[in-house]
Amino acid sequence: MILLHAIPWAGALAGYWLFPEQLPLLSAIAIAALFAVSLDLIVGYAGLVTLGQAAFFGAGAYTAGILAQQGWGEPFSGLLAAAAVAALLGLISAPLVLRAGELAGLMVTLGLGLMLYEAANKAAAITGGADGLQGVEMWPIFGLYRFDLWGRTAYLYSLAVLFVLFMLARLLVASPFGWSLRAIRGNARRAPALGVPVKARLTAAYVIAAAYAGVAGGLLAQTTSFASLDALSFQRSADGLLMLVLGGLGSLYGALLGAVAFTVAHHALSEASPVFWQFWLGIALVALALAGQGGLLGLARAAIARLRRR
What we know:
It is built from 13 helices and no strands. By secondary structure, it is an all-alpha fold. The chain is globular, with a radius of gyration of 19 Å.
């Protein structure tokens, strides 16, 4: 079992040597995967759908970027600051989202994301506005490993952060806290009968997911030396949900698989057809939905089950 879990991470590490010219793309995949994991914690496990996860991603990106721009380019403390700001934003907004109910709460998350997007656009003196945040300079990791133009340090750094946070997420969802989230997702009205404090658990999950998204945003700003309004856009949130649907909800490895598949498909299809790439991606999503539930991970599990029966 341990060997089975080690295979995808060994493959990701091998990509450093197998695809040296694609390291910036691999870094983008690692960051997208962390963002997808943050969404899976609340959508897949807690059953709380959101359209504003990009608000936390963007908050983390601008926090890490502004810190570096102002002269503090230490990577790890920048990520901690990004996580803290995003978590605080999640803590402030959680009561509004949870109080509104399912559909209204969905609209609240969308509204919060749009508000933060416009706020960042108006605060051009701080964020750079539509031009983006310039002058983000990171210090070498541990004072030794500089961020280079080829993305070598950036990829290993992003992969290491993803690995650590993914393993923490696995411990979290396997804990009593994680099982209480599953109970809430199954039936939020009956969960209190089991002694589950629903609002407290959902608030905690929302804040943790916000912190994860903030770290993903911080990674993007640090590895690209740039932060823009795109980090706060609705498209960012929508892409994250597509990754979950593509890979499979309620499984952290499904989030990873969906992030890889979506980012690679986006890259390949946009190069082949810059205008109509979304059309082909839409066909793939429809075909996947018709093939069965559970996304790509569900299809893989079904195929393995058939082979075992034979």
